[in-house]
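Contributing new records

If you add data, match the layout below exactly. Sequence lines come first and carry their own label; structure lines follow with theirs. Keep one chain per record. Anything else will be rejected by the validation script.
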Amino acid sequence: MGALISTAFFLVILIAVVMVFLHFVPLGLWISALAADVHVSIITLIGMRMRRVPPAKIVLPLIKANKAGLNVQVNQLEAHYLAGGNVDKVVDALIAAHRAQIPLSFERSAAIDLAGRDVLEAVQMSVNPKVIETPIVSAVAKNGIELKIKARVTVRANIDRLVGGAGEPTIIARVGEGIVTTVGSSESHNDVLANPDDISKTVLGKGLDAGTAFEILSIDIADGDVGRNIGAQLQTDQAEADKRIAQAKAEERRAMAVAREQEMKAYTQEMQAKVVEAQSEVPHAMADALRSGNLGVMDYYNLRNIQADTDMRKAISDADADDDIVPPMPPQK
């Protein structure tokens, strides 16, 4: 019984040792590499395990690169993986570039991948150009008519400018700017609709792909529609604004006139009050003059006669003014 227990314990220990050995020494990958004529030592595979690098993510791309005729080293792939790159995609991009006879080194491909760009898509775009469709661009000709234009830009990736070059949004923005400039410099919107290729020629001549990761091959106008009459609308808005300004100025003048009228009324009332006050002082002054002997009785009667004559003349003039008013004719039956 004791011998049986010892044998079972020994088998368990042996199985555990084999599992640990197979974990640190991926024999399957090593055999696959030998079968593909790729020399990867057991020590290298164990070192990958110690550095927490999955051996399959290095050995399988290495086999693929070796079969494609590329000179790629294990250390290069492992260093790129440790830097956070996508080893498999970099190798696929190198194979695609090699098949398309596009000069692309491992260092350049790894730099593009670490820069955050899809290096495989860039290589594919170098072989098969991509069509970028711009949103509808609104532009106004000199005659004030709005045009809504949509363009298709055919671009090819420029491998040398992928690191540090601007992306698709910059291409779309520059093409839209070129469309607005071309339409804005046209005398009439009919000229643009009659010759849409003028937009393509003008925009292509500006070198819009400078500093970008692409090379513009062609710009085609996909659609062009007539929009609003911006010139007439602006004139209408300007006329409405002028009208409001004129109304505001008229209201200001009216308010000033009303204020002036109120001021004059107040001044008139003040003067009338002063006249009434002065008239109330006249009898007192005359009484003082009579008492002091400065005014005689005859002088007083002459003054009264003059005042009576003045009142009579005023009454006559008011009566003559009333006679000049022609009464309306009675309606005839």
